[in-house]
Amino acid sequence: MDLALLEGKKIVDVWKQKGSYQCMTRNRDGFFARKSKWKETSLGLGSIFITLISGLAKTVLVVACFYGIVSSYRFITQSSHFNINEINMVGHKRLSNEELNSWIGTIIGKNIFKLDLDGISKRLVEHPWVQSASARRVFPQGVYVEIQERTPFAKIQMERVYVMDNYGVLLGIDLRGVNKLPTITGMKIKNPEIGSNVADEEIIRGLKMMRSLNQLSMFEKNPIDNVHISSRYRITFSTNTQDVKVHMRPEIARESFENLVLALGAIEKNEKDLSYIDLSFKNRVVVKHRDEVKSEFWKNKKT
Length: 303
Description:
Blueprint: H1 2-78, E1 86-90, H2 97-104, H3 117-125, E2 130-138, E3 142-149, E4 152-157, E5 161-165, E6 170-173, E7 183-185, H4 201-214, E8 224-231, E9 234-239, E10 245-248, H5 253-268, E11 274-279, E12 284-289, E13 296-299
């Protein structure tokens, strides 16, 4: 019986010890759980604080940069140190600086950073004599303008005699130093404007062919200087002395020129008595001399 009581007593003690251990375990787990939650809370608040500080620093940096940019812009666009006081123009021969400045407009005293360079170039090329123009800044107070003028190429007779360049742009009337230029006649254009382009297909063909003909030896001493456009189907070239004429059809101009080159040797034998050359026929060159009644024919032989 004592053994049974002893065993019972031990069982009770074991249960008490077990309960006490479980309570201690729960208390310890609770403590560590609370401690872990406190750490997590502390870490979360620290992370938020660091994020706020970082964002604030970035904001301050952006504001400072923006303020610096605005202040720099105000300085360079308002400082008299960057006001234009010199314009350097190159490439022009016929046009004067005063005339070009009048087309550019007033830019002296303006801020170099506010200058519209494309606008300057566009205004200059509106001048009939200016083929191309480009402008650039020369710091701190200069502007450099490069100009390419148009070259007088021919005179063209309409209701008045105009001078045009090789692109057909009218440059003016009664210009000095253009008496030796070739003349184009036969055009029926009324009231053309200076600076407008009057070069139609017939004029372009005529000018190209005139240049090719003047490269031949037979026209070296007596060059062609007149192009008469009778119609779109017939062009007549006349030499400086008006004693030799060349007739041609524009649509077969290239072929006709090749035929003339082939017949050149025979033509030059009696060049002094030459009256006209007719290249209006395919594969044939018709030549007439002043002292001849009949024409001589050279056929283009192709192999």
